[in-house]
Prior knowledge:
The chain is α/β, with parallel strands linked by helices and about 300 residues long. The protein has 10 helices and 11 strands. The chain folds into 3 domains: about 10-90, Arc Repressor Mutant, subunit A, CATH 1.10.10; about 95-165 and about 270-310, D-Maltodextrin-Binding Protein, domain 2; about 165-265, D-Maltodextrin-Binding Protein, domain 2 (3-Layer(aba) Sandwich). About 45% of the residues lie in helices and about 20% in strands. Strands 3, 4, 5, 6, 9, 10 and 11 form a 7-stranded mixed beta sheet that branches. Strands 1-2 form a two-stranded antiparallel sheet. Helix 1 (about 10-20) packs across helix 2 (about 25-30), helix 1 crosses helix 3 (about 35-50) and helix 1 crosses helix 4 (about 65-95). The mean pLDDT is about 90.
Amino acid sequence: MPYRPKTTIEQWRILQAVVDAGGYAQAADLLNKSQSSLNHAVAKLQSMLGVELLEVKGRKAFLTEAGEVMLRRSRMVTQQIEDLERLADTIDKGWEPEIRIAVELAYPKHYLYQALLKFYPQSRGSRVQIIDSVLTGTAEIIRDKSADLVISGQVPKGHLGEPLYVTRFIPVVGSKHPLADHSKLDLAELSQQLQIVIRDTAQKPQEQGGWLKSEQRWTVDNFYEAIEILQLGLGFCWLPDYTVQAGLKDGSLKVLQLGSGGEKLAPMALLSPYEEQLGPGSKLLRQCLLAAHQTEQNRENLCTINSSGT
């Protein structure tokens, strides 16, 4: 006799929401359901399984040891269901009506724009959404599979990425800043200065990368806001070298001369959070993006050959 499940996907999703939100009331707001319906769903889930998954202490719900194991396995099941539904949607629709590409802010977008120039005549009317992301915000998009393509400074475990570019970060101040003309600084001196940092786009940011040792920090949304503040003579910021070329050329920005650690390198890679369900439009855009980098590399190689020949 075929096996008949005792539980439903919806019950497991409710359990996950209660744990992730930290309680029934918070999960009810998140899911736009009544708290009593969530209590009933989890109680029925535990009853059908014959296993206690949650225990409530005060106003918060905590997982039991058995609950931790079951929750972890349930996430795999619900993710597989989501993947199946996405796959069916892709098969049914063929060419996708919308393509979402998340781009780490530190990546030079002119490569993406060149790719879109090639992609547009073949795009079949697909809408393209370009999503700026920063640090753990990019990892969050990969984890949640909320974009078709992602350009990331880190490739999470379990994913493969195509190398695209290495962004070089350098410490920069405005020409009016007291440190602009110092010949050599150490990191201890730098930690006493106001630092301008770029906001992490994650829902729950985690400071896992970047140089954040200054006690006084101002946070902005993008590099260009940071540059405007620097040009007033306020603070310093680690910035991609391609964003500050104009300011260095006109003298409004200066590179800080550090005794060591004067630059940071961030390799950028292109990946897809759900490769097996990637639609034909997304695959074509990926090819155009890889081709844009290959064209640039060929141009650089040609320049190198010509200069060595002269």
